[in-house]
Every structure is written in structure tokens, then in C-alpha cells.
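Project outcomes to date are best conveyed with an example. Our students and postdoctoral researchers have been running inverse folding experiments weekly, and each run begins with a structure described purely in C-alpha cells. The record below, which covers 147 residues, was selected by the lab manager from last quarter's runs and is presented without edits.
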């Protein structure tokens, strides 16, 4: 980095491309420019996190990579380090290597698959008990709750 302490080294992951390292401004607007819109924070590990476009799926951005929970990030995202206090910092060489390896395989998702991921199922409820039952919320025995 060229002496500018406001730059952080991140790993950028674009749809259907290999990840690459880039120095970006550690600034909200610069981060938005990388992902092409409003940013959303996603937990990756205790020492790294992802920023992606919060509206990626709604905007119909190309599916990028599948996360461990099965969700797919749409559009470009980037990974930066976390100093343990939630502040963004540069990735270490080891982190760059680790996440480049993890996200090196390009993934392809059909439009139908991406469309299926943005809709929520609405289950109307007539009261709280009905809502909890439809959400498959299991309530402990009332006697246990009184203790």
C-alpha cells in the first residue's frame, strides 16, 4: 500500500471470475462502489467478514457463490479482515490464500434458482398461538417456564 493508511487490502469475488486482491479505501462509499449499491455485512469467520450488495437478489444480479448456510450471494462481494472489534482491516497473506482457495471455483446459478431465493412464504395467522404453530415454534411445558 502506498502509505495511505486509509487503504485496506481486500479480496474481491465477482460472479463467474477468479477472486483477486485489491486495495480499496476503508470508506463506506468506496465499499458501495465495489458491490454496486447498498452494502450488507455478512459474518464469515471471527477474523474476516464479507460485504455484498444488500439488494443483489432483488435487482437480479448474477448469482456469485454459495455460502455455508446454502444461501447464494448475488453480485460482486469482497472479503476484508476484522480486528476483533468489528472494524475493517486488511487481509493477511494467509487469509488471502485461504479465501482465494475457498472461492476460486466459479459457480453458475439459473435465473429460476435465484428467483426462488428472494421470495418469502407468507403464512397468515389469526392469533399469536396460530402464528407460533405455523412457524413450528415448540414451546416448553408451561410448568418449566414458571420455575
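After processing, the design step wrote out the following sequence:
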Amino acid at each position: 500500500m502506498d502509505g495511505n493508511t486509509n487503504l485496506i487490502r481486500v479480496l474481491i469475488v465477482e460472479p463467474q471470475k477468479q477472486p483477486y486482491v485489491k486495495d480499496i479505501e476503508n470508506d463506506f462509499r468506496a465499499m458501495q462502489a465495489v458491490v454496486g449499491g447498498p452494502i450488507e455485512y455478512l459474518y464469515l469467520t471471527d477474523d474476516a467478514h464479507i460485504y455484498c450488495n444488500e439488494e443483489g437478489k432483488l435487482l437480479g444480479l448474477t448469482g456469485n457463490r454459495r455460502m455455508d448456510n446454502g444461501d447464494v450471494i448475488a453480485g460482486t462481494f469482497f472479503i476484508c479482515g476484522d480486528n476483533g472489534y468489528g472494524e475493517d482491516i486488511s487481509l493477511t497473506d494467509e487469509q488471502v490464500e485461504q479465501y482465494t482457495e475457498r472461492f476460486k471455483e466459479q459457480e453458475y446459478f439459473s435465473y429460476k434458482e435465484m428467483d426462488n431465493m428472494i421470495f418469502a412464504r407468507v403464512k397468515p395467522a389469526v392469533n399469536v398461538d396460530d402464528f407460533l404453530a405455523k412457524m413450528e415454534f415448540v414451546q416448553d411445558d408451561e410448568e418449566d417456564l414458571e420455575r
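The longest helix spans residues 93-102. The chain has a mean pLDDT of 84. The training component of this project remains on track.
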